């Protein structure tokens, strides 16, 4: 007679797609900026991260691969708070993500939108991202149901900031935190590279989106609450008086000024467990 031998199947885990609503969200969050935190203390708490400021949910396949892009220069206090609060939120939101700090090299005039373009280009060299979330370093969401991912339309996330009495300062406001899928971003040729100094670049991006026939998606005012860490205007980021005039030409200039005309030189890429820190020369006027 023949004996039946059972061969055990190799242990393999078939992961399912993560649910539309992440199960571990808690809703409203307590946020304060009085406690001093060192980077080392923050690192110790974020034991779930991989080199470069990466995370992906272990037990399901994330719905989106998200690059978080932060324009940066000399805001290390804010950086510590941002990392301390955002990493646990992003983890609960079950995204496959990386945090990119795009650090402007030198003392030339700051350029937020150009740094965000650099973030897009550098992130795309590393991984097949399908969504980009662009955030100021000083904005912390007060509710983790405000999802850091992409939607059918370009999304404005920072709709209710404390400094604007938890409301929109004006109807078309697109500043602070926003998200665009790769397709949405490419449809508008990325962001303008020519807004040096403070102001206007967020409105330009809004104009680009409008002129390509897209609408803006937003969370409601309760979910979209933010705290901004109080600060003075930085050195070398004075309000630029030309920017309001440039804004009128936004839809005209967008085809020639954007990701297709981006020029920069990477000076260094440092991978910390909390972030990928990219220092870049963006040819800033002095
Ligand atoms: C508003 C908008 C911002 C942008 C800006 C105009 C809010 C909350 N945000 O920000 O999205 O449209 O106006 O340009 O209303 N940064 C540095 N180092 C610097 C200068 C700027 O890291 O020296 C980065 C940092 O991520 C900062 C961001 O650029 O959060 C915006 O600059 P800001 O915070 O000085 O400008 P703010 O708060 O008026
Ligand atoms: Mn700010």
TrEMBL record:
For this UniProt entry, what's an example GO CC term? Golgi membrane
Q: What GO terms in the biological process aspect are recorded for it?
A: carbohydrate metabolic process; protein N-linked glycosylation
Which coenzymes or cofactors are required?
Mn(2+)
Occurrences of domain Galactosyltransferase C-terminal (ranges):
155-232
Residue limits of the Galactosyltransferase N-terminal domain? 18-150
Q: What is its EC number?
A: 2.4.1.-
Identify this protein by name: Beta-1,4-galactosyltransferase
Taxonomy, top ranks, is:
Eukaryota, Metazoa, Chordata, Craniata, Vertebrata
Part of the full-length chain shown: 68 to 353 of 354
């Amino acid at each position: 007679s023949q004996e039946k031998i059972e061969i055990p199947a190799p242990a393999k885990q078939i992961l399912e797609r993560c649910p539309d609503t992440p199960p571990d969200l808690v809703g409203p969050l307590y946020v304060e900026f009085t406690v001093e935190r060192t980077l080392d203390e923050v690192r110790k708490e974020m034991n779930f991260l991989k080199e470069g400021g990466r995370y992906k949910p272990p037990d399901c396949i994330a719905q989106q691969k998200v690059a978080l892009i932060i324009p940066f220069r000399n805001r290390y206090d804010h950086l510590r708070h941002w990392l301390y609060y955002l990493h646990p939120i992003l983890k609960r939101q079950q995204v496959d993500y990386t945090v990119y700090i795009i650090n402007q090299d030198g003392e030339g005039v700051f350029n937020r939108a150009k740094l965000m373009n650099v973030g897009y280009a550098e992130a795309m060299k590393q991984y097949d991202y399908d969504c980009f979330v662009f955030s100021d370093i000083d904005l912390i969401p007060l509710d983790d149901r405000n999802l850091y991912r992409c939607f059918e339309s370009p999304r404005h996330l920072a709709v209710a900031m404390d400094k604007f009495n938890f409301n929109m300062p004006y109807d078309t406001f697109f500043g602070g935190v926003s998200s665009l899928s790769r397709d949405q971003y490419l449809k508008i040729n990325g962001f303008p590279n020519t807004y040096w100094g403070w102001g206007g670049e967020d409105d330009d991006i809004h104009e680009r989106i409008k002129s390509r026939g897209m609408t803006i998606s937003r969370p409601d005012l309760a979910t979209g609450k933010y705290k901004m860490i109080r600060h003075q205007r930085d050195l070398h980021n004075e309000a630029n008086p030309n920017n309001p005039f440039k804004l009128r030409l936004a839809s005209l200039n967008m085809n020639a000024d954007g990701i297709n005309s981006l020029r920069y030189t990477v000076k260094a890429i440092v991978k910390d467990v909390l972030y990928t820190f990219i220092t870049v020369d963006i040819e800033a006027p002095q």
